[in-house]
Amino acid sequence: MKAVVDKKRYEKEFEEGGWIAQKIGAVAYILLLPKESRVQPIFHVSRLKEFKGTLPVKAMELPEDPLPFVQ
Where does the Tf2-1-like SH3-like domain start and stop, copy by copy (predicted)? Predict the structure, then answer.
């Protein structure tokens, strides 16, 4: 059973830079998260995956004063 699982396993490795601040040991990374994030910044390599695609565009800012309701 273990031999079947080992055939599908592959080594994941990420470069420091961008969101990755530092590699800890062989299987953990410290991520650069926003200050308001309420998540611990240390993740196991199995929880990470490479980013594919284009970076998201910043959303429009909402106006300070909401529009009045139409009656």
Answer: 20-51
